[in-house]
Amino acid sequence: MKGKTIGVISIKGGVGKTTLVSNLGAALANKFKKKVLLVDGNVTAPNLGLHLGVVDAKHSLHDVLYDNTNISQAIQKTEHGFDLLTSSLAPTKEQKKSINPYKLHNRLSQVKELYDFIVIDSSPNLNDEMLSTMIASDELLVVTGPDYPTLSCTMQAVKTAKEKKTPIAGLVLNKVRNKKFELSVNDIENATGVPVLSVIRDNVKVLEALSSTKPAVLYSARNKASLAYIELAGKITGEKPPIRKSLSRVKKVFGIS
After folding, report:
1. CA–CA distances in Å: residue 169 to residues 120, 152, 243
2. DSSP H or E segment with residue 190
3. How far apart are CA 121 and CA 38, in angstroms?
4. Strands (E) located in the chain
5. Residue 137 CA to chain centroid, in angstroms?
6. CATH code of domain 4-253
7. What pTM was computed for the model?
8. How do the domains of the chain map onto residue ranges?
9. Which residues contact 27 (CB under 8 A, 6 or more apart)?
10. For 137-155, b where at least 16 C-beta lie within 10 A, e where not — what string?
11. Which DSSP string corresponds to 195-209?
C-alpha cells in the first residue's frame, strides 16, 4: 500500500515551516516507528538540508527533476531515523530554469510505496514550486502564526489550496507566546474556515536544536514544543505515542492505570 504525502505550506517566510517538517518527520519516524521521507520542495531557496546538517549531498531533487539521476539515488539515510531528499544549495544554470509542476508528483510516485509518510517542505511563495507541492500531496498542513499579517497570508494559502482541490488536513499555529495581543485559535479558525490541528509554543529549545542541526523532538523531547510536534504526529497517524517504559514501570509499581 502506498503511503501518504503531506505538503507543508505557508505564503510567508519565518513562520517555522521547515522546522515543523523536520520535527514532524522525527516524531513520525522515532515516536511512531513510521518509514518517513522528507523532501525539500523549496528548490529556489532550500533550507531543510541546512536544518539537518546536510550541505553536500551527492545528488539532489534538482538532479531528479531535471532527469540527471534516479530518485532512489538521490534519497539519503539520516541519523535522525528518516530519509531525506534535499534540493541543491548551488543549482546549475540549467537547474534554475522553471520546472514542470507535475514532475515532483511523478517522481515521488516512484518511491511512494516504500514509505508510510512523505512530507514535503514547500516554497513560501505562491509560485510553481508551491503548486508542485500541492499537486504532489494527498493533503496539506498550513503553518500560520498568531498575528494579522501571517493570518492574511494563511487565508490566501487556504484559498489557493481549495482552488487546486488539494485537501487541507488543518492549520498549525506556530510560535505562540500566549500574549493578550495574539490572535486566538477561534479567531484563526473563523477567518480561514479550517481547524487548527496543533498549537506550538515558542520555545528556546527549538532554536538550540536548530543550532545543533537536530530536530527538537530528538534534541529535547520533553519540552512543550517537542510534545506538541509529537501530538501532531499522533493526530496524523491516528495513533497514540507509546508510553515511556520508565513511566509505565512507575505506574505499575504504584497501581496507577
Report:
1. 14, 19, 26
2. helix 185-192
3. 8
4. 4-9, 36-40, 76-77, 83-85, 117-121, 139-144, 168-176, 196-201
5. 12
6. 3.40.50.300
7. 0.91
8. 4-253
9. 217, 229, 230, 232, 233
10. bbebbbbbbbeeebbebbb
11. -EEEEEE--HHHHHH
φ, ψ (nearest 5 deg) of residue 69: -160, 160
**Contacts (Cβ under 8 Å, ≥6 apart) of 190:** none
User: What's the grid cell of residue 174?
Assistant: 506556530
Locate 232 and state its grid cell.
501532531
Tens-of-pLDDT digits for all 257 residues of the chain? 579 999 999 998 899 999 999 999 999 999 999 999 999 999 888 999 999 999 888 899 999 999 889 999 999 999 999 999 999 887 766 666 677 889 999 999 999 999 999 999 998 888 888 999 999 999 999 999 999 999 999 999 999 999 999 999 999 999 999 999 999 999 999 999 999 999 999 999 999 999 999 999 999 999 999 999 999 999 999 998 776 554 455 445 455 54
**Rounded Cα–Cα distance for residues 252 and 117 (Å):** 34
Grid cell 540527471 in the structure block, residue: 68
What cell was used for 72? 532512489
